[in-house]
Amino acid sequence: MALAAGRAMLMRSGVRLGTQAAARGGNGARRFMNHRVVVEPNTVPAGLDLREMCGKNPAHYAEYWRAVQEMWLKVYLSNLVLVAAINGTSPAGGCLIALSCDYRVLADNPRYRMGLNETLLGLVVPFWFKDTLVNTIGHRASERALQLGLLFPPAEALQLGMVDQVVPEDQVQSTALSVMTQWLAIPDHVRQLTKNMIRKATADHLIKHREADIQNFINFISRDSIQKSLQVYLENLKQKKH
Amino acid sequence: MALAAGRAMLMRSGVRLGTQAAARGGNGARRFMNHRVVVEPNTVPAGLDLREMCGKNPAHYAEYWRAVQEMWLKVYLSNLVLVAAINGTSPAGGCLIALSCDYRVLADNPRYRMGLNETLLGLVVPFWFKDTLVNTIGHRASERALQLGLLFPPAEALQLGMVDQVVPEDQVQSTALSVMTQWLAIPDHVRQLTKNMIRKATADHLIKHREADIQNFINFISRDSIQKSLQVYLENLKQKKH
Amino acid sequence: MALAAGRAMLMRSGVRLGTQAAARGGNGARRFMNHRVVVEPNTVPAGLDLREMCGKNPAHYAEYWRAVQEMWLKVYLSNLVLVAAINGTSPAGGCLIALSCDYRVLADNPRYRMGLNETLLGLVVPFWFKDTLVNTIGHRASERALQLGLLFPPAEALQLGMVDQVVPEDQVQSTALSVMTQWLAIPDHVRQLTKNMIRKATADHLIKHREADIQNFINFISRDSIQKSLQVYLENLKQKKH
């Protein structure tokens, strides 16, 4: 997945998950920040690095999860226009980031599927993942998608409203660019205030329950059964690589 | 309507409303509980037994309504997978129970209609009926459906998202079984936690206002005008039976 | 836009925005009240009179905005059935009033567009405009529509659920009348209680934050940049008139 983050237009293709943010300093000069969340494509099927969740101590888990929360809050409340140009499968955390953008363009390739499939990994989706999905596709569709851990092919993702457009693979970036142009035509300050007004309640829900969410993550991820299933999962991925 | 409740697969056909729950004891053995809510098909067009609302005293109404709330909370928050196999008309309370399941399969028979038609009976739908409908078909569609007391035929129920599938009448049970199989393939504990996380706020809304909701029911149902219209209604049903 | 407000059936055509309310006194006699909100079509492209927002002092803005809030609360929580018969473009405040009715019939004329286009005027939509839109078309569609200030032609408005029916222009009023007939067939007191139950939370959201919303309006509208752009806008309208 690539994020187009503007006013400056940043595009990045590939299966890596990257959030790229452009910010303008007070003097009008542009500074670019690049927050990479995830590194190795094959070890990050959940969009988050599963190795960070495996065999570590509670303090590590706490720090890691706080960083994930922070990353999401930055993306979700970003003053930038964020357009997701999706040319790969977007499971779990990868899907969350796409859902947190302002617009989603998905390549019309039936192998590319998208969804919060945590239950299939033996994980319970955090409530703010759920909130973000409900905002996008509604309550009923979210209930089914989350419990079954469904990954949707492009046609279904479009019908559900999980993405805004499905286009031929070689037009994903140009479509995202043209969407970005449309969004950037809106008076920027007013658009930012409007976005923030709409998204504030959802972000505040996490902010208010942030520590409980971290504790919840630690308790869950520390379970023997979860650790065992994550290890098996990572082993399988390693062997696929060789 | 029938509910398929599983891990154990329980199916029951007919127009009676039954909730059947299967629970496993700590030792892994299965115990089955059978909570019948409603008895006589022809006297329960609202899915709840109208005779319980007619000519009784406030203490009776309070006890009755508390039991209805309790039944709904059990169904709505059930750890079991509940699939509604609907082969009859589901008005009012019957519709509520169907909406509280995890999935709804409706027979493709235009005579089978579904909806919260309380206004047509002179009743105001309780707020948690409304919450459940809004979760399923959204706010706008609920506003119209509730005020007009609409009962939707299968095609419209499907389009609104009030049911998930409409199939020929003789395939309702097999379809429900196959849906159940899909849901039971998900790691059970994680699915339960996920379901609870999604539904908790809606259930808490009732739990928080439970006593006020009971008082509201008593005040409303005790009105002379309501009692009179319920009596006329029940008389008409009796005469239809003979 | 015309509002059909009933039990008494009131229809008014034209591009003027009028809310007309019929109330019955305790003695069963009908009294009619006529609250006009907006006067000059060409100066009220936002559905609200922009001249009230231009070159005035904070006390004036406060009084004006409180009246706008009051008008909306009356329409949104009206005990009357309100059917919007829309035969013109409904931007901003005009759209809000239509969205606050019980049903919307739009003339099938591609020149008639509808939406909350505040960002294009350099304005941030108040949170209760947003709440009303989200209730009607959902969260995701609202995010995009509000940020981009989209005005939808009839076909799109219908698909989004922003209106309930699109009919040939000469059938708008007769369709609205027939919809009104359907709504008036419902027992009135029960319908009113049901409507209030559904809408109460949204209205309470404004009532709770009413003073902050006024303060917010004053702060925003008093900015030099906003005043300048409103003046340019009004000048352009005047010149179009001549």
TrEMBL record, chains A, B, C:
Pathway of action: Lipid metabolism; fatty acid beta-oxidation
Pfam family, one: ECH_1
Known EC number: 5.3.3.8
Gene3D superfamilies the UniProt entry points to: 2-enoyl-CoA Hydratase, Chain A, domain 1 (3.90.226.10), 6.10.250.170
Location of this chain's protein in the cell: Mitochondrion matrix
GO molecular function: delta(3)-delta(2)-enoyl-CoA isomerase activity
PROSITE patterns linked to this entry: ENOYL_COA_HYDRATASE (PS00166)
GO cellular component, one term: mitochondrial matrix
BP GO terms, sorted: fatty acid beta-oxidation
CDD domains for this protein: crotonase-like
InterPro entries xrefs: ClpP/crotonase-like_dom_sf, Enoyl-CoA_hyd/isom_CS, Enoyl-CoA_hydra/iso
Top-level EC class as recorded in UniProt: isomerase
Keyword hit for Transit peptide: yes
Reaction catalyzed: (3Z)-decenoyl-CoA = (2E)-decenoyl-CoA; (3Z)-octenoyl-CoA = (2E)-octenoyl-CoA; a (3E)-enoyl-CoA = a 4-saturated (2E)-enoyl-CoA; (3Z)-hexenoyl-CoA = (2E)-hexenoyl-CoA
Function: Key enzyme of fatty acid beta-oxidation. Able to isomerize both 3-cis (3Z) and 3-trans (3E) double bonds into the 2-trans (2E) form in a range of enoyl-CoA species, with a preference for (3Z)-enoyl-CoAs over (3E)-enoyl-CoAs. The catalytic efficiency of this enzyme is not affected by the fatty acyl chain length.
Family (UniProt): Belongs to the enoyl-CoA hydratase/isomerase family.
Subunit structure: Homotrimer.
Protein name listed in UniProt: Enoyl-CoA delta isomerase 1, mitochondrial
